[in-house]
Amino acid sequence: MSLLSVNNLNIRFRTGDGYVHAVNDVSFDIAKGQKLAVVGESGSGKSQIAMSIMGLLANNAEAEGEVLYEGQNLLTLPSAKLNRIRAKDIGIIFQDPMSSLNPYMRIERQLGEVVEQHEGLSRSDARKRVLEVMEAVQIPDARNRLTAYPHEFSGGMRQRIVIAMALICKPKLILADEPTTALDVTVQAQIMSLLDEIQRELGTAVMLITHDLGVVAGFCEDTLVLYGGRVMEAAPTLDLFDAPGHPYTRGLLRAVPNISDASASLAAIPGSPPNQTRAPVACPFAPRCVDAIPGCHQTLPELTGDRQQRACIRPVEELT
Ligand SMILES: Nc1ncnc2c1ncn2[C@@H]1O[C@H](COP(=O)(O)OP(=O)(O)OP(=O)(O)O)[C@@H](O)[C@H]1O
Ligand SMILES: [Mg+2]
């Protein structure tokens, strides 16, 4: 059984101007210990997928489908049960460390409180665990920094603390939403190799949301490409980089001069993002697609294929 199984997930937001269809019929699985990258340009629905897994969707959201964690649907689980899973089994790392840390709380309390509450550890056992996890994320001189406040750390160190917080309950799944975007390139690389090391050691599954194809190539065995809230392509990362099967993926990779360049970004495909006021009835990428034929504007392509799945009505051989 998959650790996480997302089935036909649809998320729409009620707004003053009608609905925004942010996530449309998205399905994917994450196995124990698997690392899945979710890529796509801004607004493609990456963060909202993570939010639905954490039960953190905004009040104006309506979600349909299933988000099964070890067989339990997180979308309909009573909040007491959801809270337990959320605290113990799933860790989250957001882009901006300050949004996860309380600026008025010392680091030891901030981290320790979680394990005291959810695992019933005593104050002194909690402190031991905090120290362990601070050492695991390589905070220098951790023992003497237990009483520091978040602002006393550099940006990179703060992000290490956020990772420590996500890890402290030894979760089975980590959702990392652009964990390094706010950091400079050298620190980004350090944080990613730290995550990699920890992941190998603990066998934690990771869903890594990123704009950065360079990071994906080095870290995740599988990649899901989103556009307009729909999955365009889902494949083992190496296959996808070797022979991208969807025009959107091809465009993304072409837009990146060198995939090992850590600052590679996805913004370079001409055209504007799709209109999401209606659920898509045709390929959302068609208006920007160099390979589009009339049929692309009329039908909604299914995601098909075996190892490498793609949602495109045109045969790969015919793509430019
Ligand atoms: N509360 C909300 N009300 C209305 N629309 C929303 C709300 N939250 C998100 N959206 C819309 O949902 C869509 C998907 O947003 P999401 O945050 O998942 O994008 P993303 O892929 O994470 O983008 P980025 O790379 O910029 O973080 C966007 O069009 C966004 O404007
Ligand atoms: Mg986002």
Write the SSE topology.
Blueprint (H helix, E strand, L loop, with lengths): L3 E12 L2 E13 L4 E5 L6 H9 L6 E9 L2 E2 L5 H10 L1 E4 L3 H4 L6 H13 L3 H14 L5 H4 L9 H13 L5 E5 L7 H18 L2 E6 L2 H7 L2 E6 L2 E7 H6 L4 H9 L53 E2 L10
Parallel strand pairs: 3-8, 3-9, 6-7, 7-8
Antiparallel strand pairs: 1-2, 1-4, 4-5, 9-10, 10-11
The site of magnesium ion (MG) has 3 residues, from helix 1.
Organism: Tritonibacter scottomollicae
Protein name: ATP-binding cassette domain-containing protein
GO molecular function, one term: ATP binding
Q: How would you portray this structure in words?
A:
With 320 residues, the chain is α/β, with parallel strands linked by helices. The protein has one domain: 3-Layer(aba) Sandwich (Rossmann fold), CATH 3.40.50.300. The chain is built from 11 helices and 11 strands. It has a 7-stranded mixed beta sheet, sandwiched between helices. A 4-stranded antiparallel beta sheet has the order 2-1-4-5, covered by helices on one side. A hairpin with a 2-residue loop joins strand 9 (222-227) and strand 10. Helix 7 runs parallel beside helix 8 (185-202). The chain starts with a strand and ends in a 10-residue tail after the last strand. The model has no long low-confidence stretch (mean pLDDT 91). The site of magnesium ion has 3 residues, from helix 1.
